[in-house]
Amino acid sequence: MITAEHWIEALGLDEHVEGGYFRRTFLADHRPRISTPAGDRYTMTSIHYLLTRGSPVGHWHLNQSDILHFHHHGEAITYHLLYPDGRYHTAVLGQEPHRGQLLTLAVPGGVWKASHLTQGDHGLISEAVAPGFDYADMALGQAAHLLESFPDQAELIRRYCRPAPPGFSE
After folding, report:
1. pLDDT > 90 in the chain, percent
2. Omega prior to 131 cis, within 30 of 0
3. Which one, of 32, 57, 53, lies nearest residue 42 by Cα?
4. What confidence tens digit (pLDDT) does each residue in 24-42 have?
5. Which ranges carry the DUF985 domain (predicted)?
6. Residue 144 C-alpha from the chain's centroid
7. Distance between CA atoms of residues 127 and 35, nearest Å
8. Contact 72, 104 (CB under 8 A)
9. Beta strands 45-52 and 77-82: pairing type?
10. Is residue 166 in some structural domain?
11. How far apart are CA 50 and CA 21, in angstroms?
């Protein structure tokens, strides 16, 4: 049986600041960079990303780039999306389209996103990011800020915000 530990070792995954594990798999360094309001970026980057029973949540975060998510192995992963206009959407990325699961999920830049492993030992996906990922274009969700912008989603915001370190106050 293939386990989360197998994927962590086989793919050389490291802990991710959002939760789960990751490893960059592609960087379009063979092409000229493109200009964005935040600076020059690679045209595309990609990663493997793994949620596990021990690290089942991808905490609220916002990326400026568009991201395609592709499910590869394991259990389904549920995504919670908060759009700038206040809309909330949920989608399940998994291997069972007859149950409404998606093999691929597109999340536009500027949309807050959280995810969680629905059940089981692990869910393995990959992400393609365009323009390419840069930490300067990503924000981790802070509960107070998200609650101001999305007061109707208070339960989800609190559930999927990364816990603040001891002694931290917003």
Report:
1. 94
2. yes
3. 32
4. 999 999 999 999 999 999 9
5. 6-140
6. 20
7. 21
8. no
9. unpaired
10. no
11. 5
Q: What is the pLDDT of residues 137-164, one digit of tens each?
A: 999 999 999 999 999 999 999 999 987 6
Tell me which residue range forms the domain holding 112.
4-160
Number of folded domains in the chain?
A: 1
Task: Tell which phi-psi region holds residue 19, choosing left (phi > 0), alpha (psi between -120 and 50) or beta.
Answer: left
Residue 170 has pLDDT above 50, yes or no: no
Residue pLDDT, tens place only, 68-102: 999 999 999 999 999 999 999 999 999 999 999 99
Cβ-defined contacts of 3-10 (< 8 Å, 24+): 3/121, 3/122, 4/50, 4/52, 4/53, 4/54, 4/74, 4/121, 4/122, 7/48, 7/50, 7/73, 7/122, 7/124, 8/50, 8/52
* 69 assigned to some structural domain: yes
For the domain that residue 98 is a member of, what is the CATH number?
2.60.120.10
Average pLDDT of the residues of the chain? 95
Give the other-Cβ count within 10 Å of 43's Cβ. 16
Q: Record the tokens describing residue 102, joined without a space.
A: 């998606």
